Amino acid sequence: MRIGILGAGQLGRMLALAGYPLDFDFVFLDPATEACAAPLGTHFRAAYDDENALSAFCGSIDVATYEFENVPAKTAEFVSARVPLLPAPIALSVGQDRLSEKTLFDQLGIPVPRYLPVSTRADLDRAVHAIGLPAVLKTRRLGYDGKGQAVLRTPQDLDAAWARLGTQPLILEAFVAFERELSCLAVRDKNGALAFYPVVENVHRDGILRTATPRANDPLQTQAEEYARRVVDHLGYVGVLAFEFFVAGGALYGNEIAPRVHNSGHWTIEGAECSQFENHLRAIAGLPLGSTALRGHSAMVNFIGAAPDNAALAAIPGVHIHHYGKTPKPQRKVGHATVTADSAAELAERLRRLQDLVRAAES
């Protein structure tokens, strides 16, 4: 089977690495000259609105998917009219717009922080009056890794935030003083069968994911699965979806969904019976889903801006190194490592050593 992927970044790269043992071949479409998945398949280097390239892409594949949620809507429509595109474009349209996400969560009875759309400076004043401060002003589209948002703590913060973000549709959300950030990774096949990985506890810094640790037997596992189930069933979803939550007062609040494989699930390559990447491919290819059970204890640490020395990483027992083949630059994800262990205490010690190396490389 030939699988087409819109986008050729590290997620596409890891999808291909998971798919070759299943005898899948890969075709990527991505305008980037430095597309790190390109060495793993055929690469159409073309703009997402290049219909000639899109036609050639569609003509060379059996099924299409995507590795990032900001694929233009017209591109998704063009591809889905010619080959199966999974997940379906409706998932993209929801995942691309924070207001659409929050509206859907409301409709499905999933708790969310208070929010209001903001289109004008007067809207912002009204929204702040209604929601109160602190609050977070976010772009409705294209924000990721902490980009496209501003925390408003006092009325004096409004002018600067509006000057920076006010040229595009926005949403104001109540600030959540969360205790934890969790993600729930769900995978749904073409027949509606579902599987869930253990919820993942995430630690961000400067808006970028730093560490992701699966939590076996977390008290919020069942509730997180139920909320994710409502979303994927409503969308008729096929593939892996990540649902990110805030935990406040011991309860879950929906933050956002990612209709694709997700950074918080990279640990599954070594830490689960079947990785999120393989399971996504199984789902879109019509194969039975693999087991999401844990294999011991594990945690993942991102390499941001630069990676530690391979020899130092490899000296830590249980460490599995993943470089993405990307040129290092500040705030860029250039790789990750997953550390595995037989016990929680052993994991904690190995993780501490790994994090020390990563901090030193970033400094």
TrEMBL record:
One of its GO terms (biological process) is 'de novo' IMP biosynthetic process. Pathway: Purine metabolism; IMP biosynthesis via de novo pathway; 5-amino-1-(5-phospho-D-ribosyl)imidazole-4-carboxylate from 5-amino-1-(5-phospho-D-ribosyl)imidazole (N5-CAIR route): step 1/2. One of its GO terms (cellular component) is cytosol. This is N5-carboxyaminoimidazole ribonucleotide synthase. Belongs to the PurK/PurT family. Homodimer. Coiled coil: none annotated. ATP binds at residues 98, 138, 143-149, 173-176, 181, 204, 255-256. It catalyses: 5-amino-1-(5-phospho-beta-D-ribosyl)imidazole + hydrogencarbonate + ATP = 5-carboxyamino-1-(5-phospho-D-ribosyl)imidazole + ADP + phosphate + 2 H(+).
